[in-house]
Design brief:
alpha+beta, Immunoglobulin-like, OB fold (Dihydrolipoamide Acetyltransferase, E2P), 2 domains, 5-stranded antiparallel sheet, 14 strands, elongated
């Protein structure tokens, strides 16, 4: 299942009022859980329906790992709760996605509209119980599988492997076109990685293709657009964090070259006298 829909764009409704945090976001005592996708899926053989959600769990601590058991709870209109528990282990600043579903035997037959509306919440297992307003209702939406990173749709990053290489929550890797690979072990490269992390880990990104779609390592060759509308590669060049790979820039070569030139003139990042 591709995580390509906007956060809560499926029309998730709040149960209760006065939610302190954003709907579909939960504090897991050191990490955050965000609801990326929610709906129902039908078994092609039995025709039974199950409710399914995909969560993105992010360790907000950039220094210490996160090791906790978390719990995802589904509740029907009858008040009965079904709980799913799993142990989450995250490196400092890392993220991962978890897909959770109920057993495929909801109290409904045939059309999805006959299924009862369930609600869901996430919390740290054994921690303080969530209050009623933490519940989020699942919409009557049928989930479908979609191929590869689609253009123009929100995607979520799980990890910044290096400044020009991102990993999505579904495991697919994105190589930013127009950027030379960063050198390893340099302070500038580490600072660049931190800058990219700050730009992509708290929201969605969009991709577009420009020439060959994959490299020899299997990564998708893309231009990445941030939620602000900025081109990530152009921003990194403009701030002096990265060097231009003119061959790979394809149709945006002129804009990327101009951004790198401006960073050189201003002496930013890699172009500071002491950094050369």
């Amino acid at each position: 299942m591709a995580l390509t829909r906007p956060l809560l764009a499926l029309g998730l409704a709040l149960i209760g009022a006065g939610l302190a945090a954003a709907p579909g976001r939960w504090d897991l005592d050191g990490a955050d859980a965000r609801l990326l996708e929610a709906g129902y899926r039908q078994d092609p053989r039995s025709q039974d329906w199950s409710a399914e959600v995909t969560l993105r769990v992010v360790n907000r601590d950039r220094q210490r790992p996160y090791h906790q058991q978390i719990q995802v709870e589904f509740q029907g209109p009858d008040g009965k709760t079904w709980a799913w528990k799993t142990f989450v282990s995250l490196a400092p600043g890392a993220a991962q996605h978890r897909r959770v579903s109920t057993p495929p035997r909801l109290d409904c037959q045939g059309d999805l509209q006959s299924c009862p509306l369930l609600r869901v919440r996430a919390l740290r297992s054994g921690g303080a119980k969530a209050v009623a307003s933490d519940w989020v209702e699942l919409p009557h939406t049928v989930l479908e599988d979609l191929p590869g990173p689609p253009e123009g749709q929100p995607l979520y990053v799980a990890r910044v492997i290096e400044p020009g290489l991102l990993e999505l929550v579904n495991g697919q890797k994105l190589r930013l076109m127009g950027l030379a690979e960063a050198g390893k072990g340099r302070a500038q490269a580490k600072a660049a990685l931190e800058r990219v992390w700050s730009l992509v880990m708290d929201g969605s990104v969009k991709v577009s293709y420009d020439g060959p779609r994959r490299n020899a390592a299997g990564a998708w060759l893309v231009h990445v657009q941030l939620g602000s509308g900025q081109d990530l590669a152009e921003l990194l060049l403009d701030e002096g964090w990265m060097r231009l790979d003119g061959v790979a820039a394809q149709g945006r070569q002129e804009a990327y070259r101009k951004a790198e030139s401006q960073a050189r003139v201003k002496g930013l990042g890699l172009w500071k006298p002491q950094a050369r």
